[in-house]
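Incident review: delayed structure delivery

Summary: a single-chain prediction request sat in the queue longer than the usual turnaround. Root cause was a stuck worker, restarted by the on-call engineer. No data loss occurred. The affected request and its eventual output are reproduced below so the record is complete for anyone auditing the incident later.

Affected input:
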Amino acid sequence: MTDIELVRVAEALFRAKRVMSTLPHAGSLFYDPAWDILLDLYLAHHAKKCVSVKGASLATNAPQTTALRQVWLLESLALIERQVDPHDRRRHFVVLTRDGLLLIEQVLEAYGLQFSRLLEDTGLAANP
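Output delivered after worker restart:
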């Protein structure tokens, strides 16, 4: 899949997570702040935007302490890293590492291929 296709899959998954969070009980059943952070950072990477630690926390819709634990976990797995804001040394940005980027691209590729097969198999795919 191309980068553009992978970004479209990531955007669709991010939107789906937001819709699911509004459904009764779904917010707690399908709760995965680490995945939300990875998706947010992937989309920011392709939009060439910086995400602060606080911004990454907000992307999870989780309590800040929970989100910060997930940031620490992703850092300990070397999937993301903190970078000091060059304009305000009190603030840090978080970015995907090369390994983090490769991992999320592999996951998005798997999702994209499965969604494509589903659409083809069910006849829901748009005819060219």
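Verification: The first strand starts at residue 80 and ends at 85.
Action items: add queue-age alerting; document worker restart procedure.
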